[in-house]
Protein: Trk family potassium uptake protein
Organism: Paludifilum halophilum
Amino acid sequence: MQPFQRRRRLTPPQVLVIGFAVTIIVGSFLLSLPIASEGESVPYLDALFTSTSAVCVTGLVVTDTARTYSTFGEWVIMLLIQVGGLGFMGFTTVFAVLLGKRIGVKERLVLREAYNQVKVGGVVQLVKYMVMIYVIFEGIGFLVLSVRWVPEFGWGKGAYYALFHTVSAFNNAGFDLFGDYQEFSSLTGFVTDPVVNGIITALFILGGIGFIVIVELYQYRWTGRFSLHTKLVLLTTIGLIFMGMSGIMLVEWSNPDTLGSLSTTDKLMASFFQGVTPRTAGFSTLNLPDLYPATHFLIMMLMFIGASPSSTGGRIKTTTFMAIVLAVWSMIRGRDDVSTFRRRIPHGQIYKALTIFVASMVLVIGMTMLLTITESSDVFHVFFEAVSAFGTVGLSLGMTPELSDLGKVLITLIMFVGRLGPMTIAFALAKRTVPPFYRYPEEEPLIG
């Protein structure tokens, strides 16, 4: 009875951290089995790295997926991606509903924490919507990619490729199976393919804007309104897509190793794909090491911002970024309140956004410093790798396969923190305290 009571005292953040950790450990055990590999069994540390990358929907790999893992191993990776995208609590809730079990208050609190909700009410309904969204969009993606790849690869391989890459794209994971043709090639072989570019980008954009936004877009014809959250997500997403596409197009237009050899139409398509993918997707149609340093820096900024809350993507999240931008703009205009779209954002939300931003920067910079000690690489490549891992993006300049064992552990940790969020990890580790019933006298220090 004592262990059960101890488990009942776990806070929602602690449940999330433990749940994700257990899922990763189970996945690493399966991937280390002889049946999961093409040749010799994968070393456990590599299996742990791959399992973490899949559950955290990152896409960073120390070995090429297609060349290393068997069909069984690839199915394990695909399942881990699906669990990581929906969230293990989402899967638990779905099974509980199917079995006719009641979702208690404790489970609803964990769901609220998992999907960054403000209220407990409606979280179970949100999970039901999420499952429907998964079935619809992954079904459409599977059909379209099957039509494209079955004529080229045959029924079995074409349909299998369509399923794997649909799951990977919608969950913003970035895993691919085209290493059989060229190791760590991602989707570079389809840089001029409009079908593959179109459906893959559509999947990871929809997966990255968040399930709440998708539901509100669907319900708009009845409600006739969007919440402030949806407005901010759509505005920020469109702005970042335009910034990414236009920035890459301007910098890389004449680069003979990337866009320079393509037609104008293909340049636009490749720029759009590469401008969107840093938002945690992890796929690439251009060879990243061939891009100019300015493009690498732009990609790092986009990776750090990431996708939106309640999505399959990573952080710091679009709304966090926009809240900070709005706070800065309000301060410049001399206003105490942060407002937009005729709505005022509570100061508590602004503090939370600033906390997430600062904590994330400290984490990335700290991990970068450690990786410069453990790895024989320049600081820029290390910084790119750390940001990619934290943002659960999966883009790499070629450093991942060369990581030392300690480097693999550090990247594994930063992927884990990036998926759950530094605030969730902090709340899970912190001791719960009662807020004080007093306030100190106010005094203004000199700022700036």
Q: What stands out?
A: Residues 1-7 have pLDDT under 50 and may be disordered.
